[in-house]
Amino acid sequence: MNRLLLLLLALLLPLSVVGCPGAASKTITGKILARRGPDVVPVVDAQVRIWPTTPGKKADTFEAEAVQNLRGVATTRASGAFELSALSSPETFAEYPLLKGYTYMIEVEVPGYYITSSSFEYAGGSQYVEMEIEEKAIDVLDTSG
């Protein structure tokens, strides 16, 4: 019994020192939806872009390069879900973690829908963002005679 307890403690000790995988990860997840009649449906293959705009009072310090250069990009899956865990710079091609304490802009673009944007505060850790976008009306004008 004591050996089993010691073995169990030996296995759990490294997790308490290092932490559980993903426990302190910085991630923005979410879902993009659209209304079709009375139903709300997921939007597949939407391009989701985020970027930090304004630091809050307790914002992470960032001195590597200008914050306004940073972007995060993801594409939605069949469920409308997306996940972003890093920002990158198109100028230096460097990758950075998400910046805690900033206001972020989120922009969604997909053919057949209006480009939609919004802002949210990122407090750190794992955060969920959901957006509903509007489908474009299709007007067809027949001028063939």
List keywords for this structure.
four-stranded antiparallel sheet; single chain; 12% helix; four-stranded mixed sheet; mainly beta; 145 residues; elongated
What does this structure look like?
- There is one protein chain.
- The chain has one helix at residues 2-18, and strands spanning 27-36, 39-42, 47-55, 72-75, 81-84, 86-88, 95-97, 102-109, 116-122, 126-133.
- With 145 residues, the protein is mainly beta.
Strand fraction equals: 35-45%
Count of individual helical segments: 1
Question: What integer is the average pLDDT?
Answer: 82
Terminal Cα separation, in Å? Answer: 90 Å
SSE order, one letter for each helix or strand: HEEEEEEEEEE
Number of strands: 10
Tell me the overall shape: elongated
Largest sheet: 4 strands, mixed
* Computed structural class: mainly beta
Helix content: 10-25%
Rg for CA atoms: 21 Å
Q: Which helices and strands, and how do they pair?
A:
Layout: H1 2-18, E1 27-36, E2 39-42, E3 47-55, E4 72-75, E5 81-84, E6 86-88, E7 95-97, E8 102-109, E9 116-122, E10 126-133
Parallel strand pairs: 1-10
Antiparallel strand pairs: 1-2, 1-5, 3-4, 3-8, 6-7, 8-9
Short account of what is shown:
This protein has 145 residues and is mainly β.
